[in-house]
Amino acid sequence: MSGHLYIIGMGPGKKDMMTNEAFAAMVEADVIAGYTVYVDLVREHFPKKEFYTTPMRGEIQRCRACFDFLKKGKQVALICSGDAGVYGMAAPVWELLPEYEKEGVSPEDITVIPGVTAALSGAAVLGAPLGHDFCVISLSDLLTPWDRIEKRLRAAVEGDFAIAVYNPGGKNRPDHLKKACEILLDAGAEKTRVCGYVENIGREDVKSAVCTLEELKETKVNMFTTVFVGNSQSEIMAGKLVTKRGYGIK
Q: Which residues pair with 112 in a beta bridge?
């Protein structure tokens, strides 16, 4: 089969925050596929390309379309914001592969290209909130039951992890961040535990702030916000959120 499917993490979307490998794969692609919002971020660089988009909740349709392009011998770039393997399209593509192996597609026809995920690009804006062990938890209960999300939040406090919180809010979950903060507080996190958040990472209208966990509970966020909760050793240093590694620097 002469086609190939590249599952690409494009970072926040700006060209200078993509890896050279990611951009090169898009250059070589016959088709660039993705969520409409993400494709719109790269259209200007590829005005003559064929594009395939689906709206939110069209993820499986998008993956199947990419397999169909692949079977036709086309080079396909399936783009994802951040990293393709972190809440991205890499997992559903691999889940669908056994079905398409019956039609001649093989694992060698698929390549995953990593990108800078929001936990890392957002952390860079705030300072060093993930300087020690950390976990990433999404507050979206579209595919994950809320009781499981709550267990993960409580386990993060018990393990004293710093936390990067994805999908903290939006039209369909305006109070999820507040609920999550209340769970963290109930699990033993201090009201004064330092936190931060970054909105529109890697874009011109980026906004960021540091705060306490109690203040975070009342903060309004949207789907373009990534939230960071420090561990018990995190501090605000020179206006930045820093989770110390443990070197004992005085």
A: 7
Q: Which tokens is 221 given?
A: 């966020």
Provide the residue type at 243 as one letter. Answer: T
Coil, strand or helix at 154: helix
Residue with tokens 């509970």: 217
Closest CA to 131 of 240, 11, 16: 240
**What's the confidence (pLDDT) of residue 173?**
84
CA distance 158 to 97: 38
pTM for this one?
0.94
Q: Which domains does the chain have, with CATH numbers?
A: 4-116 (3.40.1010.10), 119-242 (3.30.950.10)
Q: Give the count of beta carbons closer than 10 Å to the beta carbon of residue 151.
A: 12
Please, are residues 166 and 137 in contact by the beta-carbon 8 Å criterion?
Answer: yes
User: Would you say 115 and 18 are in contact if contact means Cβ atoms under 8 Å apart?
Assistant: yes
Q: Fill in the amino acid letter for 200.
A: N
CA torsion sign for 23, 29, 88, 98 is negative
Mean pLDDT computed over every residue of the chain: 96
Among positive and negative, which fits the CA dihedral 144, 145, 149, 152?
negative
Amino acid at 13: G
pLDDT tens track for 173-232: 889 999 999 999 999 999 999 999 999 998 889 999 999 999 999 999 998 999 999 999
Long-range contacts of 55-59 (CB under 8 A, 24+ apart): 59/35, 59/89, 59/92
Nearest to 132 by CA among 242, 228, 235, 248: 242
Q: Is the separation of the CB atoms in 103 and 72 below 8 Å? A: no
